[in-house]
Amino acid sequence: MRTRLLVGAAVAALAVPLGLAFPAQSHGYITTPPSRAALCDADAGAVPWDCGDIQWEPQSVEGPKGFPAAGPSDGTICAGGNSRFAELDDPHGGAWPTTAVTAGQRLTFTWKFTARHATTDFRYYMTKPGYDAGRPVTRADLDLTPFLIVPYNGRQVPGTLSHTATLPSGRTGHQVVVAVWTIADTGNAFYSCTDVRF
To answer: Which fold is adopted by the domain 25-197?
Structure first.
């Protein structure tokens, strides 16, 4: 009996550090046009700076839901408020690679999911005319009316999913699209920033 108790205690003691060392693999990010997380993906190597932890888990930009009334604080939106991924909020003087677009263009955003969460919706926001790409994104920089809302009504997402939107007019130069994937059955959402150039 005593041996069984000791073995059980040893197994429990080992389980705690193992559980902390291997967090659940989560969850999803925009691959095309490439989001900042996709550009930082270790397999992409598309930026000349060190992206830190996000290069190993581009799918993990998870933060509180309820954006824009709640959610990550200003200046931490692209990282979902997660300090581990703060590199995504660093504007690098406006040097993030951009995708060329035009006002009124139909642009398709494709998500890759590594966990198929029940989903409330997807919302896409864009920075306002005159946005300074040399600064971290804040709510004051964004048009807080989404240019695309895709309701999902609690359904689970597939492995990949695409949404096509008509891009707003009135923009020039470097702008940022902030996409928010809101999870139905947790208090969180996933944040994805994509840099475009009109």
So the answer is: Coagulation Factor XIII; Chain A, domain 1 (2.70.50)
